[in-house]
Write a structure and sequence with these properties.
There is one protein chain. This protein has helices at 12-21, 50-55, 67-75, 94-106, 120-125, 136-146, 161-189, 194-203, 209-220, 230-246, 252-269, 278-281, and strands at residues 2-6, 25-29, 45-47, 59-62, 85-88, 110-113, 116-117, 129-133, 154-157. By secondary structure, it is an alpha/beta fold. It has a 6-stranded parallel β-sheet with strand order 3-2-1-4-5-6, sandwiched between helices. A 3-stranded mixed β-sheet has the order 7-8-9, with helices on both faces. α7 packs across α10 and α10 (230-246) packs antiparallel against α11 (252-269). It is globular, with a radius of gyration of 20 Å. The structure holds NADP nicotinamide-adenine-dinucleotide phosphate (NAP).
């Protein structure tokens, strides 16, 4: 089967590699074409337009930054989507996902949402956590392909539910890293050894593995080679805030974190890893 991968950024690239290694014929498109070009060495076809990639594929995997990018890639050149299956794997809001679902169905295509938890390492190793919003029939039909990316795709209901679940989890990423960054900055300024802080934290119920993953970067102030960019973290916080507000949830804590992310981006860390928020929470000078 020909599978198009639109978006070969931090996540899309290793996901396209996994499809190729599983024996699929991959047609890759990336707006900045040179980022997709090395996939040719693994047997992929690389196109200069999304249109070409879609035309020659039965299934189209989207791993694009946001809804705007999806809108551009899928709909700007009026490519017919009849009989195509679109699997949307980036992080967008439930509302945006349902909107794309409607548009694609109208054209006679199929749509599944399958946002993922995990980052570049998990994408490379095929151990992403996959949440699927679709009909049960679609889930059963596409589960095999999705196993290229993660061992146990989980069906969570109709379109919108998986997108909501993913945003709920990403809100926690933003909240947990800012809580950790604040305590790390605090102990450092109080003269408490970081090893003592981490030693106690690791033994406690407060511990999350993400703290140890991010700690070296935060201590070295080295946020290049990101797993997940500050820009995309802000995008997800914005999406969550909009949805949460409409559901009458109290959001001031997350609004504060949004402000921290905006400041961090203002300091030039937009494309760096989101744990660069440490530079705003505990500025060096
Ligand atoms: N990184 C993670 O750990 C992670 C984990 C789970 C989910 N996600 C989600 O997965 C999606 C992709 O994440 P990523 O980390 O791979 O992001 P990324 O490296 O920034 O890649 C984003 C992709 O979208 C493309 N793009 C952006 N704006 C576009 C536009 N207007 N038109 C066409 N293409 C456009 C980029 O093209 P260019 O290369 O030309 O900019 C690139 O291919 C995001 O929704 C993110 O929130 C990320």
């Amino acid at each position: 089967m020909n599978v198009a991968v639109l978006g070969t950024g931090l996540m899309g690239y290793p996901m396209a590699e996994r499809l190729l290694r599983a024996g699929h014929r991959v047609i890759a498109f990336n707006r900045t074409v040179k980022k997709a070009t090395p996939l040719k060495d693994l047997g992929a076809a690389v196109t200069k337009s999304p249109k070409e990639a879609i035309e020659h594929s039965q299934c189209i995997i989207l791993m694009l930054a946001n809804a705007e990018a999806i809108q551009t890639a899928l709909f700007s050149s009026k490519i017919p989507l009849k009989n195509k299956t679109i699997i949307q794997m980036g992080t967008i809001s439930p509302e945006e996902s349902r909107k794309f679902h409607k548009k694609i169905i109208k054209q006679g295509g199929q749509y599944l949402e399958c946002p993922v938890l995990g980052s570049r390492k998990e994408a490379r190793e095929g151990t992403l956590i996959l949440m699927v919003g679709s009909t049960l029939k679609q889930f059963k039909q596409w589960r095999g392909l999705l196993r290229c990316f993660g061992p146990a795709p989980k069906w969570v209901g109709t379109v919108g539910k998986a997108a909501a679940l993913k945003l709920a989890l990403n809100q926690m990423i933003a909240s947990m890293i800012s809580a950790f960054a604040l305590s790390l900055g605090f102990v450092k300024r109080q003269g408490v050894k970081v090893d003592d802080f981490m030693g106690i934290l690791r033994k406690s119920v407060l511990y999350a593995p993400t703290f140890d993953k991010k700690l070296p970067q935060m201590l070295k102030a080295d946020y290049m080679n990101p797993n997940f960019s500050t820009r995309n973290m802000l995008k997800d916080v914005n999406l969550f805030l909009k949805e949460a507000k409409s559901k009458r949830l109290a959001i001031p804590a997350l609004q504060g974190i949004r402000g921290i992310l905006i400041k961090t981006i203002g300091k030039g860390f937009s494309d760096d890893d989101y744990c660069s928020i440490f530079e705003t929470i505990s500025p060096r000078k």
